[in-house]
Amino acid sequence: MAMLNFGGTDEKVVLREEFPLTKALETLKDETIAVIGYGVQGPGQSMNLRDNGFNVIVGQRQGGKSWDKAVEDGWIPGKTLFSIEEAAEKGTIIQYLLSDAAQIEVWPTIKPFLTPGKALYFSHGFGITYNDRTGIQAPEGVDVILVAPKGSGTSLRRMFLQGRGLNSSYAIAQDATGRAYERVIALGIGVGSGYLFETDFKREVYSDLTGERGTLMGAIQGIFEAQYQVLRANGHTPSEAFNETVEELTQSLMPLVAENGMDWMYANCSTTAQRGALDWKDKFRDATKPVFEDLYRSVATGNEAQRSIDSNSQTDYRVKLEAELRELRESEMWQAGRTVRSLRPENN
Ligand SMILES: NC(=O)c1ccc[n+]([C@@H]2O[C@H](COP(=O)([O-])OP(=O)(O)OC[C@H]3O[C@@H](n4cnc5c(N)ncnc54)[C@H](O)[C@@H]3O)[C@@H](O)[C@H]2O)c1
Ligand SMILES: CC(C)(O)[C@@H](O)C(=O)O
Ligand SMILES: [Mg+2]
Ligand SMILES: [Mg+2]
Description:
- By secondary structure, this protein is an alpha/beta fold.
- The protein has helices spanning 21-27, 41-51, 65-72, 84-90, 100-110, 126-129, 131-134, 153-161, 180-190, 201-213, 218-233, 238-260, 262-267, 271-300, 303-312, 317-329, 332-342; strands at residues 2-6, 9-14, 33-36, 56-59, 81-82, 93-96, 119-122, 143-149, 166-174, 193-198.
- Helix 11 runs antiparallel to helix 12 (238-260).
């Protein structure tokens, strides 16, 4: 574990050099890792673990799209691909990667397989933090650990294949065996993390729910919509509005921000842009900060969790969700985006 300084604050982090893959493999050499769920995180984590040489199996409901995808990805029914029950029985580490709502529903099925000495692993603090609402309460004899990749399972896999790593947080809610720390770090390295930073289940879920509702997706989509609509209302074409709102951001500026930071971006655009962006950033901050405060409150009171549990457990949830997603997909902005993407030279 290293102490590193992040902008003036010291933090405990684990770097890949300090806990190399060889050490992770040695730590887990007698374990069977059962990845339960093959949606988005399941494929990324299980395939990275498999390619890294760990003993890993998958547990998934039979007969659906996810099962077929697992077979396509090389998991063999009866050998490395099982029903949820069979995988939970065989696993000494159970990576609970069903959707958060499904974790509640399937919990009574999983719980009997959590015998002393096993580890229960999450990639989100949701089930444990809001256990008054989820009913997920691990038995005393098991380790309860978390590795939460800070990004999509799709990126986790892509970055692994590119020899890169996606940063993850890690946490221990229960150390029953005295091995929870080495287990969680070995798994964090095994699934393809960049560096690992320490958190607890509550801070993980509070920050994660805030981030995805905020600047990672909700806020950014809201700001895109607002700017696009104003440009369109003032006579700008879809092409101009989309390029000035989204395409330039994702294709030109954000890759530069990712490499060098927004401070560098500010220093390397025109003096005209600098003047305006310095003047307007505070107005945007002041306009949106109360919304972020409201959002954080809604997360901390459990409202966001309850809303997600209530809507995700409705029988017509998928149909309603698809209607909302269709509206987004069919909006002028994202239809214009589809055309703009198709015109990228590399897509021709
Ligand atoms: N999606 C991501 O990239 C991402 C990123 C970080 C953390 N997480 C966390 O990882 C966990 C898994 O998320 P995900 O997005 O991969 O899940 P998901 O929504 O893709 O679902 C995973 C699996 O759950 C199965 N499932 C759904 N309902 C079920 C039911 N009733 N019974 C049995 N199986 C059922 C599906 O078949 C699917 O294979 C969650 O805790 C999530 O918060 C996800
Ligand atoms: C990929 C995200 C948004 O970071 C994750 O938190 C999720 O819930 O899918
Ligand atoms: Mg999330
Ligand atoms: Mg997240």
